[in-house]
């Protein structure tokens, strides 16, 4: 009967919160802003996944006879190109839809990589403490001394650009926030009874961190991860805008902004539509992150 004690102690933690979480979730569904943001985000994800089926044209097909055609609702526009065409006659709607694929892939990939690295560091630092904690946190302090985007620019400029290189760089430059949050949570949990009992019956440190500590830090991790997706999308757009991100032949919102900046005075749609897509995606993801934070902290609903 003794080996079951830690499992019972661990089981009490989520079950004790299940009622509060249900109340928080119901309150969240009554939040119109969060529901709208989730709906828009779902549409963006669907558009990214099925871009070849949704986009009316190949985003790279050029037709100089149709260059800089305005959107359909303006004089000179055509329903064949709802958002107009760019300086090379490429369909803007198709390019905006295909640009979502790169942005969401980079955002999700960078957040996942940073989350895995940061969670592992935070678990080890918070659980073991001592010299391990001091060493890992000093390493985090060193990285925080460099601005993330500047560090990403330096690494990409030195190692070269590319889709997977951008994901790796943004992932490895964003792990610190995960590590610090996980460390603080683990330091408050490692003295709890269920951890002490697990140690007493000989459960290994790796098993304690994996089965007893990691599930208790998933809620803040989900919030940080969601917000990091938005930050990575903006960072990728910034790198592509500067010509150091995804290669030019790949459609990205940052690259479209760079191409359209010369035409803001005459053909505003070339830069405005990818800018709106970038802003809308970041806004909806940030709102979703705020909603997840509220679910993770049910006390916010107790007034």
TrEMBL record:
The chain crosses the membrane at residues 34-55, 102-124, 136-156, 162-182, 217-242, 262-283. It is found in: Cell membrane. Residues 100-289 form the ABC transmembrane type-1 domain. Its main location: membrane. It is a multi-pass membrane protein. Keywords: Cell membrane, Membrane, Transmembrane, Transmembrane helix, Transport. It comes from the Bacteria. PROSITE patterns: ABC_TM1. Belongs to the binding-protein-dependent transport system permease family. This is ABC transporter permease. It comes from Streptomyces tendae.
């Amino acid at each position: 009967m003794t080996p079951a004690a830690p499992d019972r102690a661990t089981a009490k933690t989520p079950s004790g919160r299940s009622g509060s979480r249900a109340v928080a979730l119901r309150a969240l569904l009554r939040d119109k802003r969060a529901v709208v943001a989730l709906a828009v985000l779902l549409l963006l994800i669907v558009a990214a996944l099925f871009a070849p089926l949704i986009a009316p044209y190949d985003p790279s097909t050029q037709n100089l006879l149709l260059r800089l055609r305005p959107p359909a609702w303006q004089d000179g526009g055509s329903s064949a190109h709802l958002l107009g065409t760019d300086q090379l006659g490429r369909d803007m709607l198709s390019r905006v839809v295909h640009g979502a694929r790169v942005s969401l892939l980079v955002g999700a990939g960078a957040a996942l990589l940073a989350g895995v690295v940061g969670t592992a560091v935070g678990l080890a630092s918070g659980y073991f403490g001592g010299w391990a904690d001091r060493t890992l946190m000093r390493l985090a302090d060193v990285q925080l001394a460099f601005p993330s985007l500047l560090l990403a620019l330096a690494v990409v400029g030195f190692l070269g650009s590319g889709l997977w290189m951008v994901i790796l760089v943004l992932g490895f430059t964003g792990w610190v926030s995960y590590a610090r949050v996980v460390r603080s949570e683990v330091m408050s949990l490692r003295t709890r009874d269920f951890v002490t009992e697990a140690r007493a019956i000989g459960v290994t440190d790796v098993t304690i961190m994996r089965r007893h500590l990691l599930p208790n830090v998933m809620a803040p991790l989900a919030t940080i991860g969601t917000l990091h997706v938005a930050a990575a999308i903006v960072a990728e757009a910034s790198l592509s805008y500067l010509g150091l991100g995804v290669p030019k032949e790949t459609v990205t919102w940052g690259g479209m902004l760079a191409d359209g900046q010369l035409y803001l005075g005459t053909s505003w749609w070339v830069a405005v539509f990818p800018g709106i897509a970038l802003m809308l995606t970041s806004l909806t993801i940030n709102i979703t992150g705020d909603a997840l934070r509220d679910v993770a902290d049910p006390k916010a609903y107790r007034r």
